[in-house]
Amino acid sequence: MKWWDNFKQNRRLKAEQAENKRKMKRERALIGGKLKRRGVTALCLGGGGARGFAHIGALQAFREANIDFDLVVGCSAGSIVGALYAAGVEPKDMLAYGARLQLKDIKKGFIWSPDDSMKIGKIVSDLIGDAQFSDLKKPFYAVATDLVEGKQVILDSGSVATAAAASSTVPLFFKPLVMGNKHLVDGGLLNNIPADVCRMVGADNVVTVDVNPTRGGGTSEMGLISVLKATFDIMGANSSVHGLINSDIIVAPDLSAFKSTDKDGYEEMYRLGYEAAKEKCDEILRLIYKD
Question: Do residue 108 and residue 239 come from a single domain?
Answer without folding.
Answer: yes
